[in-house]
Amino acid sequence: MPGLVAATGMAMLNAIGTSLVAVTAFGLTTAINYARSGLVAWGLPIGGWAARRLAYHRGALIKVFAALIFVVAAYVLWRSARDLDRPTEPSSSTSSVIIVSLLTVRTA
């Protein structure tokens, strides 16, 4: 918004409205295009519906969210433990850093 205000001299309230209209238009166009292409994960709208239903029961949504956090944490720990067993080769960027570091040490 500050860039829009600075570039056009319009009031902040008008810049906010203009930005909102532009983001909505681009978002809807993209969403429709993805939906027509079959690239929409329909689980997200279904999840939103379920969250709305859970929100009416005090604390239920918080408990489900906390359980989801624990599931994601367990998954991350499992992936990390699994990846520890795999040897990794240094990438080219790592090799470049090592070479530059060695050259810096020798010239100093």
Write a brief structural summary.
The chain has 108 residues and is an all-alpha fold. It is built from five helices and no strands.
Any key phrases for this structure?
about 110 residues, mainly alpha, 2 domains, 5 helices, about 80% helix, disordered C terminus
Textual characterization of the structure:
- This protein has 108 residues and is an all-alpha fold.
- It folds into 2 domains: 1-40; 43-108, no CATH class.
- It has 5 helices and no strands.
- It has helices spanning 2-8, 12-37, 43-55, 60-84, 92-107.
- The two termini are 49 Å apart.
List the helices and strands and how they pair.
Elements: H1 2-8, H2 12-37, H3 43-55, H4 60-84, H5 92-107
Mean of the pLDDT scores? 75
What's the N-to-C terminus distance? 49 Å
Please give the largest β-sheet: none
How are helices and strands ordered from N to C?
HHHHH
Count of DSSP-assigned helices: 5
Poorly predicted segments: 100-108
Kindly name the structural category. mainly alpha
Q: Characterize the overall form.
A: extended
Radius of gyration: 25 Å
Percentage of residues in helical conformation: over 70%
Number of separate strands:
0
Structural domain tally: 2
DSSP strand content: under 5%
